Amino acid sequence: MRRRPSPNRITRFNVAAFAFLLGIFWLAQSWTCADPTHNHGKDEETSKVPLEVHIMSKCPDARDCLEQLVVPTMANVSDKVDFKLSFIGTTTDDDDGVKCMHGQTECLGNILELCAASEYPDPKIYLGFTMCLSRQYERIPKKDLIEDCALEHGIDFDTLNHCMSRDDGAYGMDMLRKSVQRSAKLGVSTSCTIRLNGKTRCVVDGGEFRDCDDGSEPKDLIRDIKDLYDEARGWSD
After folding, report:
1. Buried b (16+ CB within 10 A) or exposed e, 56-71
2. 165, 16 contact by CB (below 8 A)
3. What is the model's pTM?
4. Which of 5, 125, 210, 229 has the fewest C-beta atoms lying within 10 Å of its C-beta?
5. Residue 74 above 90 pLDDT?
């Protein structure tokens, strides 16, 4: 007998159903924005500093982490950073699902944010969209919240909906599963965890910044990124 799905577990079928509803809501609306591209030389690309942020979409610590540290930092040094947003959860064997701490709506929020990153790889777009959702994380994935944040950051509803519904939800589900597996493989289980150049740089947990030995202000993280960038380009003293 097949086991009844956990209420906190999301599967590709849940994603497909949610995307179908989004399609109904968004069918008559379309906003587009060009995705700017930047041509960098090979040396500049390889010198970029890896900055990875591990979050849960409906976590207040993720909101504080992004708002107080990550977004202000990226506003100053995005051209020097190879940025990645990863998610925290638990994979399950049933239907290749994922279990999220704050329930199915968090899993759907995670997939929405992964779809934004997949379809709009410029961090200025998808990080801004994620920050917008995080400010009202309790309401994820309410239609009007997604509409407002997508419009504000130049994300097309149809594009986002297509990502959510692609392959009956399997595409988004696979992205979330791989992201969760990556966080687990790196030993990250706390939202929010910031990793700089492959090492834990700072953690926000229970409203407190910890393990931020070199400082928890944007100026501190900006300094570290610039130092690592200059060192990679051979500009260090």
Report:
1. bbbbbbbbbbbeebbb
2. yes
3. 0.84
4. 210
5. yes
